[in-house]
Amino acid sequence: MADLVSLQGRWLDEKRFDDTRSIFTEDATGEFPSGPVRGADALADQALRNHRDYERTQHVTTNVLIEVDGDNATVGANLVATLVPRADVPDSRLTIGERYRFEAVRTAAGWRFSRVEVRPVWRSR
């Protein structure tokens, strides 16, 4: 399950939005500061909108706590993300701290997130 959290960070950093269904269920939901989304395609679209203006990003997820209950799980984690609009101007970066809460289900293809909630904690330019 911790691997799924890491894959979600790579999904964002490498803009691998075609891989959404290897991380999220088809009907996954998300709750973000910008509002709710429903479905894997909507999650990918949301991620693309939030990251398209950044040439480089790095999502570092820590303090992962997993509670498994049969074929369901909840995952909590802290995130520090650095977003850089132009790699040749690194001082233009935005750094944010957020708290993740995921719900996951065991599928025939393995564990997938069925829900993600993002709660901002801090932000720095």
Chart the SSEs and their pairings.
Layout: H1 2-13, E1 24-32, E2 35-38, H2 40-51, E3 56-69, E4 72-84, E5 94-107, E6 110-124
Parallel strand pairs: 1-6
Antiparallel strand pairs: 1-2, 3-4, 4-5, 5-6
Question: Descriptors for this entry?
Answer:
125 residues; alpha+beta; six-stranded mixed β-sheet; 6 strands; 19% helix; globular
**Unreliable runs, pLDDT <50, ≥5 residues?**
none
Secondary structure class reads alpha+beta
Beta-strand residue percentage: over 45%
Backbone shape? globular
Could you give the order of strands across the largest sheet? 2-1-6-5-4-3
What summary fits the major beta sheet?
Answer: 6 strands, mixed
Question: What is the β-strand count?
Answer: 6
**Helix-strand topology string:** HEEHEEEE
Gap from first CA to last CA: 32 Å
Helical content, roughly? 10-25%
Report on this model:
It is a single chain. Helices cover 19% and strands 55% of the residues. It contains 2 helices and 6 strands; from the N terminus they run H-E-E-H-E-E-E-E. The chain has helices at residues 2-13, 40-51, and strands spanning 24-32, 35-38, 56-69, 72-84, 94-107, 110-124. The protein is globular and about 45 Å long.
